[in-house]
Design brief:
Layout lengths: L15 H6 L1 H9 L4 H10 L2 E2 H7 L5 H13 L3 E6 L5 E6 L1 H31 L1
Antiparallel strand pairs: 1-3, 2-3
């Protein structure tokens, strides 16, 4: 297992500018929005048409789905294919870069599930 978080390499104090430009901070901000992880997980199963995704994610508006997919596309994680049907249909799939994110996300999800009781206990103790 490769350790990425190495506290010995961080300056003390950590300059705000360095933190703001950190690639890890950037990616975690992107992934932590309300819909991104769910969409990446769904697209990790198979390609989806826009309306399929809209039906698969309860509570997401068409506007937010469009915005999130465009952001993932601009990050190179999702690709969009337009079919020349009438009306045109659009399909979304993970790019190879997006697929490469599934394993670390799965590890994080596994950790969260394995430790959810401990985290909940700690929160209750401090509440």
């Amino acid at each position: 297992m490769r350790v990425v978080l190495d506290g010995d390499r961080l300056p003390d104090p950590v300059p705000a500018g360095e933190y703001e430009t950190c690639p890890v901070t950037d990616v975690l901000r992107r992934l932590s929005d309300k819909w991104t992880l769910l969409l990446i997980t769904l697209l990790g199963r198979r390609p989806y048409r826009f309306n399929e995704l809209n039906r698969a994610v309860e509570g997401i508006s068409q506007r937010m789905l469009t915005r999130t997919l465009r952001t993932l596309e601009s990050d190179g994680l999702v690709e969009r294919e337009v079919f020349g049907t009438s009306p045109p249909s659009v399909e979304y799939r993970l790019t190879p870069l997006g697929v490469s994110l599934l394993e670390p996300l799965s590890a994080l999800a596994g950790w969260a599930v394995d430790h959810q009781a401990e985290v909940a206990d700690a929160r209750r103790r401090l509440a």
